[in-house]
Specification:
By secondary structure, the protein is an alpha/beta fold. It contains 18 helices and 23 strands. The chain has a nine-stranded mixed beta sheet, sandwiched between helices. The chain binds glutamine (GLN). Residues 356-358, 384-385, 408, 463-466 line the site of glutamine.
C-alpha cells in the first residue's frame, strides 16, 4: 500500500478560471515544504492526445521529455515545479477508451459487457494511481479538465468519487475552483454560481473539501462565511484567488491564503517545514522591477491566440527577469507580412523570433522576417520551422539557389534544403508519429550557443518531421551559416548559426519547453541579452 495522497482539482461556473495555475501553485507550495509532488491533467476530449489539434482549438501542444504531445497545462506544471512530466501526466478520454477497447479486443473482459462504469472509470482510476505509486510521489495533484456539469466530465468525477471511498478520506482531497462574479451595477460580489456549482458536485457524490474562489475584488469575511455555510466547508477552506498581473504571483497569494496549510491539515499530514520560496520571490522582484526594455517580434501564423505560443511567451518572461528586462512581444502575422510593409512592421524591433509551425500558410512572411533579421543584423531566433525558414532564406538569397524550399511546402523544389527524414517517408498516420521528445546534441565550442549553454552536451525536445538537408551543409558553411549543434547518433543538424552577425541562431528543437522560473533557458537569456545591447 502506498502512502501517496491524491488531490483532485475541479472547476465550476465557467472554464478558463485557471485550474492549471492553482494546481501548479499548490504543487509549488507543497514542493517547497519538501514533498515530492507531481501534477496530472485529465482531459475529457476524445482525441488520443492534443498533437492532432490545431493551436486555435486548444492552444499550444506541449511536448514532454519522453515525447508525449500533451496539454499546455503541463507546461505550467514544469515551469512552476521545475520537474519533468511525462505521458502519464496527461490522460484524455480518447486514450482511456483506446486502452479499454484494445483490452476488449484482446479478450481481457471476455464474456462481460464493457461499460462506462466500471470499465472506463476503472481505467481512469488505474492511470491516476499508477502515476503516484510508480514514481513514489508523496502527492499527486490531478486537475480535471472542463467544467463540472459537462457531460464528458462525468466518468472522471465518478472515478475520483470512488477513490475517496477506496483510499480513505485521509488520502484524498477535493478542491473546487469557482468564480465569484462582480456586478458593477449593484457593486456586489455574487456567490450564487458557486453555490450551484457545489450543488452540482454534490449531486455527483462529491463534497469539496476546499473552495478556491476566483474574484476581481477582495472577498469580505461575510462572503467567505456565507460560502462556507452554504457549501458545507469550514471558514479556512474558503480560499480567495484574486486577479493578479502575473501568474507567477499566484503561489505567493495561495501561501497568504494558507492553502498549503489547509491541504496538509485535511490530509492529516504533519507540516514538515514552512515553504522556502526565496528564489521564487527573487524572480518576482526582478520581474516587477525591470531596468531595460526590449521589443521582440514573434512572427507566426497563430498569433490571434496568445496560448498558441504559450511556452515561448513564458520563456521570454523568465529570460527577461534574469536580464532585468521587460520583454514586450509584438505578434506579427506571417500571412500579412510582405516586402511593402516589412520595414515598417519591424521598425524599432530589438529581436525577431520566427515561430514553430506547420504547412505553407504564411511561410513567405516568415522567410522575409529571417531575411530582414540577417540583412539588418537584428538578433534572430528561429525555432523549429523558424530555423527551417532561415535556412531556406539563406539558400535563396545568399547561395543563389533559386526557389529553394522545404519539401513540406514544395515537394518538387529543385533545392530541397529542408527535407523529410528517411524514417518519416513511409509514415501516413498523423498522431504521435513525428520526431518527438528529447534527443542529445553536441554543441560546437566555438559558437555563440556554446557561450549560452556553457556545455557541449545538451538534450532538447523535438516535434517535427523535416530536417536540414546534409547535402547542402558544405555550401552553407562556406558562405557563413554554420552547423554548430549536431546529433551525435544520427549526425542530424540541430543548430545553425551565422557567427558574423550579432546573434543569429536557429534551432531544430524547442528550447521553450524547458524554460522554468528557477532555470530559465540559456538560449532565451542570451537572445534577450543580444536584443538589449
Ligand atoms: N513543420 C516543420 C516540420 O515538421 C516544423 C515543425 C515545428 O515547427 N514544430 O519539420
Amino acid at each position: 500500500m502506498s502512502n501517496t495522497k491524491y488531490i483532485f482539482v475541479t472547476g465550476g461556473v465557467t472554464s478558463s478560471l485557471g485550474k492549471g495555475i492553482i494546481s501548479a501553485s499548490l504543487g509549488k507550495l507543497l514542493q517547497a515544504r519538501g514533498f515530492k509532488v507531481t501534477i496530472q491533467k485529465l482531459d475529457p476530449y476524445i482525441n488520443v492526445d492534443p498533437g492532432t489539434l490545431n493551436p486555435y482549438e486548444h492552444g499550444e501542444c506541449f511536448v514532454t521529455y519522453d515525447g508525449a504531445e500533451t496539454d499546455l497545462d503541463l507546461g505550467h506544471y514544469e515551469r512552476f515545479l521545475g520537474i519533468k512530466t511525462s505521458q502519464a501526466n496527461n490522460v484524455t478520454t480518447g486514450r482511456i477508451y483506446q486502452s479499454v477497447i484494445n483490452k476488449e479486443r484482446r479478450g481481457d473482459y471476455l464474456g462481460k459487457t464493457v461499460q462506462v462504469i466500471p470499465h472506463i472509470t476503472d481505467e481512469i482510476k488505474r492511470r491516476i494511481l499508477l502515476l503516484g505509486t510508480k514514481n513514489k510521489y508523496d502527492m499527486v495533484i490531478t486537475e480535471i479538465g472542463g467544467t463540472v456539469g459537462d457531460i464528458e466530465s462525468l466518468p472522471y468525477i465518478e472515478a475520483v468519487r470512488q477513490l475517496k471511498w477506496e483510499l480513505g478520506s485521509n488520502n484524498v482531497l477535493y478542491i473546487h475552483l469557482t468564480l465569484v462574479p462582480y456586478l458593477s451595477a449593484s457593486g456586489e460580489l455574487k456567490t450564487k454560481p458557486t453555490q450551484h456549482s457545489v450543488k452540482e458536485l454534490l449531486e455527483n457524490g462529491i463534497q469539496p473539501d476546499i473552495l478556491v474562489l476566483r474574484t476581481e475584488h477582495e472577498l469580505t469575511d461575510d462572503i467567505r462565511r456565507k460560502v462556507a455555510s452554504f457549501c458545507n466547508v469550514d471558514f479556512q477552506s474558503v480560499v480567495q484567488s484574486i486577479d493578479v498581473s502575473t501568474i507567477y504571483e499566484v503561489p505567493i497569494l495561495m501561501q497568504k491564503e494558507n492553502l498549503d496549510v489547509t491541504v496538509l491539515k485535511k490530509l492529516s499530514i504533519p507540516q514538515k517545514s514552512s515553504p522556502s520560496l526565496e528564489p521564487w520571490k527573487k524572480f518576482l522582484q526582478k520581474l516587477k522591477n525591470p531596468k531595460h526594455k526590449v521589443k521582440i517580434a514573434l512572427v507566426g501564423k497563430y498569433v490571434e491566440l496568445a496560448d498558441s505560443y504559450k511556452s515561448i511567451n513564458e520563456a521570454f518572461i523568465h529570460a527577461g527577469a534574469v536580464n532585468e528586462c521587460a520583454v514586450e512581444v509584438k505578434y506579427v502575422h506571417s500571412e500579412e507580412l510582405n516586402q511593402d510593409n516589412l520595414a515598417e512592421t519591424l521598425a524599432g524591433i530589438n529581436g525577431i523570433v520566427v515561430a514553430p509551425g506547420f504547412g505553407d500558410r504564411g511561410i513567405e512572411g516568415k522567410i522575409l522576417a529571417a531575411q530582414y533579421a540577417r540583412e539588418n543584423n537584428v538578433p534572430f531566433f528561429g525555432i523549429c520551422l523558424g530555423l527551417q525558414c532561415a535556412v531556406v532564406e539563406f539558400a535563396r538569397n545568399v547561395l543563389g539557389l533559386e526557389k529553394a524550399h522545404s519539401t513540406e511546402m514544395h515537394t518538387k523544389t529543385n533545392y530541397p534544403v529542408i527535407d523529410l527524414m528517411e524514417e518519416q517517408k513511409g509514415i501516413t498516420e498523423k498522431g504521435g508519429t513525428m520526431r518527438l521528445g528529447a534527443y542529445p546534441c553536441i554543441v560546437n565550442k566555438k559558437s555563440k550557443v556554446y557561450n549560452a549553454y556553457k556545455k557541449e552536451q545538451i538534450e532538447e525536445r523535438h516535434r517535427h518531421r523535416y530536417e536540414f538537408n546534409d547535402k547542402y551543409l558544405a555550401e552553407f558553411e562556406a558562405a557563413g551559416m554554420k552547423a554548430v549543434g549536431i546529433n551525435p547518433d544520427t549526425k542530424l543538424v540541430e543548430i545553425m548559426e551565422i557567427p558574423d552577425l550579432k546573434w543569429f541562431v536557429g534551432v531544430q528543437f524547442h528550447p521553450e519547453y524547458s524554460s522554468t522560473v528557477i532555470e530559465p533557458h540559456p538560449l532565451f537569456i542570451h537572445f534577450i541579452k543580444a536584443a538589449i545591447s
